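Thread: Glycosyltransferase family 9 protein, structure

OP (GT): Posting the sequence first so everyone is looking at the same thing. Length is 339 residues per the record. Can we get the structure tokens written out before standup tomorrow? I want them in the notebook alongside the other entries.
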Amino acid sequence: MIGDVLTSSILFEALRQKYPKAQLHYLINKSTFPVVENNPFIDEFIFFTEKERRIGALLKFAFQIRHQNYDVVIDVYSKLSSNIITALSKAKTRISYFKHYSTLFYSHNIKRKTHGNQLALVNRLQLLSVLGMESDIIKPKIYLRPEEIKTQKTYLEKQGIDLKKPLYMISVLGSGENKTYPLPYMAKVIDQVVAETNGQVLFNYMPNQKEEANMVYELCKESSKAHIHLDIFGNNLRDFLAITKHCTALIGNEGGAINMAKALDVKTFAIFSPWITKETWGFFENETEHVAVHLKDFKPQLFEKAEGKKLKKEVKSMYHVFKPSYFTDALKRFLTASK
């Protein structure tokens, strides 16, 4: 997933500081490349495609990796495909997270920390402890080229966007239903954004989510619709990133778009799914630049006995409880600070 690939890219910055002459390669799903493209700490990208998901092609791919003669393989993904690739790599040092069924594939199995904050970053950097490395928290970064930023500035202005006025990107839909704030609730969030700021609004959604995005638009007040520019979006992920760079803030469902905005130094207001923990994915939070709200903040009693898998099954009913009125004041403070 895009958020995982972006977050894991911090390992390269840490490794480059420790080993300035090392060759650092990143094996990723090809579709996620835009978020790490132009990263100055990565020497080479190796793409995993849909073809490699078949066992024959996967083994062939793994043997191609083997011929690279890597000294160290760090498997952040730690699923069956990466287990096989790592096991066949010939690297003497093979590092991943501890899972009882995959320990034989690795020379070092690191147990994840379960308490604390920013755990997605902390646990990734913990993988480097095998190499005798300790690192402070590193912020994921996206490296846009100046011409990319300029091109999208021109595009926005041609579409009638006034970049001197507030411009908000709304992540109206998550990557799946269990990470998507109920559409009527999201419409109320957008209504508040417009009412508080008189700002311009863009929608972020995937092409296959266009119908749901239109539903959110129709649920908004008529006064809000006049501020929404539904037809402005990037033709690809790099375009989206460059458009987001010009936004005052990105607001909406926690996920890849929120992580990308943070990596672009764009302010964020994230609405967490009840089954995703803020302790893991809530990065660099404060009251003005990066705000995150979670049902647990308002109804902690609902989480006293519930665990991840149970929460995931009950996410629809828990989302229903998570009304926009719970965080109206937090959103108002954020919007006031971001204007």
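GT: Both are above now. Quick notes for whoever picks this up: The radius of gyration is 21 Å. DSSP finds 16 helices and eleven strands in the chain.
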